[in-house]
Structures are given as structure tokens and as C-alpha cells.
Design a protein that fits this description.
With 481 residues, this protein is of the alpha/beta class. The protein has 17 helices and 19 strands. The strands form three sheets. Strands 4-3-2-5-6-8-1-9-18-16-15-10-12-13-19 form a 15-stranded mixed beta sheet, sandwiched between helices. Strands 7-14 form a two-stranded parallel ribbon. Strand 3, helix 8 and strand 4 form a beta-alpha-beta unit. It is globular, with a radius of gyration of 23 Å. The two termini are 38 Å apart.
């Protein structure tokens, strides 16, 4: 067999693999083109990468867990759905009835009940967030449930672990779920102190074979804490010293996190228990021990907590973002560390801007992920051309994931504005229907503008040619990275 024959076989094999990719990715054109480019430039090896990074998630077990949890709240969901459809639902704030259709969409699409007895505290720096969290942990009586994407073996990581160990010694149930990929540098024995005193720890989608994880593309990006079923934390802060501003490279870390009290915490609790049952051998029943009763007057904020991930046919958080943007009459204020939207979300932002809505998008000026950073900048010109305003935050690193519409409704959570967050990651966001909370988040956004450089079409057009090349390549690969 000569070299020409080997080349012909190699070419035929690559064509066959390309056809296979087209068949498997037939519902996603952007992913198909990205994988075909990789196959073109890295023949055969590219297909091996596809088997690892492009593997579809088996949903049988996930759907069973989802169905089991849905049965518990099915009657309540159907009752609220009927009230919303017949316009018989009693809104504590009559002004929020304008968002009835969005509430109904979240209810039907993700079984997210609309509750109106919640209170919210906003944290924008890691020190105040972790101080509050450690106080709540110290006061815990029955259980502490945590799920974090990144956990570091550093000062704050060990401080939090020691607090959990102390509570486990007192008989409090402690369960800690961490993402295997996000916390890849965590020593195996990190949780030994906790498990040694009766606590529990589990990794989400760990590698069964050393150095080979066929589920590495699916990550639990949620950051949740539920304490005694009454208090919940949700937002952007992970567990690590850099999130307290101790990194020399990032400097000050600007994030947004919520402390929630009220019935919305039960949605966070249900999601944690499903995640735990997916990752741990010890199954937990969704029983009343973890879902205490709430008094009607516990708080006055309307809220839905929406989960999304590869276990669903829909991209619920992205859909909710789009619905919010289309509802805007005056302003859209968006903060995200990564901006790699699909066509539907980009179209919503451009239509809002072209309709006279003031659209402001705030991004970090520093990079922490090379490809995502340059892909983010590739979309800026489209926003500017459509009339949106773009800002680069320069006081440290911006990691907040917030969206505020007209100063009336808002979202804070774990999802970034990128394809990975919406399609591949397990995420969770709190959607708040409360003008006071939304106004406070809008005020914080306006304060952040003092530390930003505004991008203009003139500035953007003068960027170096090499930057444009990086943007183009990163944008092409963004659907799969």
C-alpha cells in the first residue's frame, strides 16, 4: 500500500466521520460547522474530541428524577397555572400582573412556582457574602445543603469546611456537592474531616477512568446553599480566595449574590436534592423534613427560581431572559462576564435597542478564559451597530450575572450569557418581580458605570488586526468550547 492509497483511505474515513457529525448534530447548525472545521484541520483526532466533548447526555435517569419531583408539586402547579390563565391570581403587587405571561411560561416550562412571601438581601462583594453565610451556618439547626461549581483548598475554603465540620459534630445534616471539573484541583482528602464526623460530600459527574471523563462537557455550574429549608443563597460567588479579592491578577472581584428567605427557597431545595440524588449513591426522599411551612407574611417579594440544563428539551433561563428583554419599554441593564449569545438572544437585544429601549451591556475588561473573552468581543460590534451601549468594567473582574428590566423586574443567578450556560451547564437563576429590588440592582449597575470604559464603534473599529483574528476563531469555536 503506497502513500496515495493511505491518503485516500484517510480522506474517506474523515468524510465518513464528518457525515456522522452532521447526522448527530443535525438540530444545531452552529455546532455542526464548528465540529466540521475541527475535523477539517485535525482529521480523525477531531472526531475523538467530538466523542468526548460532544457526547449527548443520557436523560433517562435525569428525567425520572425530574418526574418524581414534579409529582410532589404537580397539583400546586396546575392550580396556579389555572389561576394565571383565567386571570384569577391575586398579585400582592398589582403592577406585577403585567408579567403574568412570563410567570406562566416559567411555571409551565420549568415547574417554577410563583411565590410572593420572600425577602432578599443583595451582596456584591465576597467578604460580606461569606460573613453572612458563615453566620447562617453557625445558626443551622437541622440541615445545610451546598452545591458549588468551584471549591478551592485555600483560606476561605478551609474556613467554610471547618464551620461545616463543627455543625456536623452537633448532629446537623451536612451535604456538600461540588462539580468535578470546576473543582479539578481539589485534593481527594479535602472533605475527609467532614465525612469523618458524619457529613457527606459528593462530586458531580466524576471521572470513572483516570484522565478520561466522557461527561466533562456537562458541568454543574450552580452555586446554592440551603439552610434548614428557610434560608437560601444563590448567585455568582464560588468558594475561593479570589472571590474575596485576594488574587493579584484579578484584584477586586465584583459579583452579585442573593440571600433569600421565603418559600422560593423550596425550589432551590428541590433542585439540590435532585442534583444530590443524581451524583450520590445515597438517595434522599423529597419529604416534609426539608420543606418547612412558611407564614404568608414572611416577606413581600414575588419570585420564581428557574433551573435549566442539558436534562431539559428547553433552555428555560435563556427563554426567560428573552421574554424579559421583549417586555422592556424603557431600559435593559445586563451584566455578564461572558457574552456569547445565540441568534435569538442577540436579536432580542438588537430589537429592543432599535425600538428606543436603552440597552446597556457591561462586560469585564480582564480575561479569565481566552476563547470566551475573544468570542465575547466578537459580538460587541453587532450590539453597537444596533444602538446598544457597551461598557468594559475596569475595577477588578466583573463576574455578576444580572439582568434588570425597566427597574421593575430582575434576574440574578448562576447563568452567563453564553451558549455553554444555556445549553450544556446545569444552572439556576432567581427571577424577581419587585420594583424595590429591581431598582436597587439598577442603582448598583449605575454605580458600576463609574468604573467602566464605554466602547464606541470608532474605538472598536481601531482594534488591532490580530485581535480581530482571535475574535473570529473564538466565535467559530464558541458553540463547542
Amino acid at each position: 500500500m503506497n502513500i496515495q492509497d493511505i491518503f485516500s483511505i484517510f480522506t474517506l474515513l474523515n468524510i465518513f466521520l464528518a457525515i456522522t457529525v452532521i447526522f448527530l448534530e443535525r438540530r444545531n447548525a452552529s455546532s455542526t460547522w464548528a465540529w466540521l472545521m475541527i475535523l477539517y484541520f485535525i482529521p480523525v483526532i477531531g472526531f475523538i474530541l467530538y466523542l468526548i466533548l460532544g457526547q449527548k447526555l443520557r436523560k433517562r435517569k435525569l428525567n425520572k428524577l425530574l418526574r418524581d419531583s414534579q409529582r410532589i408539586i404537580e397539583d400546586t402547579v396546575e392550580g396556579q397555572k389555572l389561576q394565571l390563565e383565567q386571570r384569577d391570581f391575586a398579585f400582592h403587587d398589582p403592577g406585577m400582573s403585567a408579567y403574568r405571561d412570563m410567570i406562566l411560561m416559567n411555571l409551565v416550562g420549568s415547574y417554577s412556582l410563583y411565590t410572593q412571601n420572600n425577602s432578599v438581601q443583595i451582596y456584591t462583594d465576597g467578604n460580606s457574602k461569606f460573613d453572612a453565610l458563615l453566620r447562617d451556618i453557625e445558626a443551622a439547626q437541622h440541615h445545610i445543603h451546598l452545591v458549588y461549581y468551584i471549591v478551592r483548598n485555600d483560606e476561605i475554603g478551609n474556613q467554610l469546611l471547618d464551620a461545616l465540620v463543627e455543625k456536623a459534630k452537633q448532629g446537623v445534616e451536612v451535604r456538600f456537592l461540588y462539580d468535578h471539573i470546576g473543582s479539578k484541583g481539589l485534593p481527594r482528602k479535602f472533605f475527609a474531616k467532614l465525612t469523618g464526623v458524619g457529613g457527606h460530600a459528593a462530586a458531580f459527574f466524576p471521572s470513572r477512568i483516570p484522565y478520561l471523563n466522557l461527561k466533562l462537557n456537562y458541568r454543574n455550574h450552580r452555586k446554592l446553599v440551603i439552610i434548614d429549608g428557610y434560608t437560601g443563597y444563590i448567585g455568582g460567588f464560588n468558594i475561593g480566595d479570589e472571590y474575596l479579592g485576594r488574587s493579584k491578577y484579578f484584584g477586586e472581584w465584583r459579583d452579585t449574590h442573593l440571600r433569600v428567605k421565603g418559600q422560593a427557597v423550596q425550589q432551590m431545595q428541590a433542585q439540590f436534592l435532585m442534583d444530590w440524588n443524581m451524583a450520590s449513591k445515597g438517595m434522599i426522599d423529597l419529604n416534609e423534613r426539608y420543606f418547612p411551612r412558611f407564614k404568608p407574611g414572611d416577606g413581600g417579594i414575588g419570585m420564581q427560581v428557574v433551573a435549566s440544563g442539558p436534562d431539559s428539551e428547553y433552555q428555560q433561563i435563556k427563554d426567560a431572559y428573552i421574554k424579559m428583554i421583549y417586555s422592556a419599554k424603557e431600559s435593559v441593564s445586563l451584566q455578564t462576564p461572558y457574552f456569547v449569545p445565540d441568534e435569538s438572544l442577540m436579536t432580542a437585544l438588537k430589537i429592543a435597542a432599535l425600538s428606543g429601549v436603552e440597552v446597556k451591556v457591561m462586560l469585564p475588561s480582564k480575561q479569565d478564559h481566552f476563547f470566551v473573552y475573544w468570542a465575547t468581543h466578537s459580538y460587541v460590534s453587532e450590539l453597537l451597530a444596533g444602538g446598544a451601549k457597551c461598557y468594559l468594567y475596569e475595577k477588578g473582574f466583573l463576574h455578576a450575572k444580572t439582568l434588570v428590566i425597566d427597574g421593575k423586574i430582575a434576574s440574578v443567578g448562576t447563568a452567563n450569557i453564553d451558549i455553554r450556560s444555556f445549553k450544556l451547564n446545569f444552572e439556576m437563576n432567581a427571577f424577581m418581580y419587585d420594583s424595590t429590588t429591581a431598582a436597587e440592582l439598577q442603582r448598583i449597575f449605575e454605580e458600576d458605570l463609574f468604573y467602566c470604559e464605554e466602547l464606541t464603534i470608532e474605538k472598536y473599529s481601531k482594534r488591532p488586526l490580530m485581535n480581530r483574528f482571535k475574535e473570529s476563531i473564538s466565535r467559530l469555536l464558541s458553540p463547542i468550547l
